[in-house]
Amino acid sequence: MANLCTLGNDQEFTGPPFINTLNWTNPNDICPGPADAVAYKVWFAPGPDDEPAVLDYIDSDAITTYIHSLNTGLAGCYAISAIDSVGNESALSALVCVDNCPKYELPNAFTPNGDDANDFYTPFPGWRFVERVDFQVYNRWGNLVFTATDPALNWDGKSEGRELAAGTYFYICKVYESRVDGTVLRPEILRGYIELIRGR
Questions:
Q1: What is the pTM of this model?
Q2: Which CATH architecture has domain 109-196?
Q3: Residue 40: CB partners within 8 Å, gap ≥ 6?
């Protein structure tokens, strides 16, 4: 199995569509007896506990690569079955599951001063496979001034419509990642300081 996640978490990442490339061994090359496999079925399940369903039929034993294009992420589970010349189908291969590689990091400053540059507090570009967040910002007296569940955040430096003073704010962020097992809370809670800068 190959995809952008297998290249490493810091690789440039684009999508959708997201692409998983499957490769398997032709059973005619490894099984004793006559070369009788003539076709394959590719099976897919969204998660390891889901029932696989036929994704595609490949009408050639020589084709042992399949490219699967997905719209919502890379997570999923795959299996292959072989079909012989009289239509008999093998048992499914072992289910192979791939996972998303979530990425979500937060900066420590923004400048909501109306100059159209860094006016909104957002995650660093390239964040991916995050279902939702529980993001909370506090002022230096410990008062909650902003919350968000959308991973894009888009905080404009206001609290209930009022501009907040320049200064240092503290944030706590729980990150809920989209994984092959469903939506999973990241074990590490993000926390740190944000410098809200209003000077032009």
A1: 0.85
A2: Sandwich (2.60)
A3: 24, 57, 58, 61, 63, 64, 80, 81, 82, 83
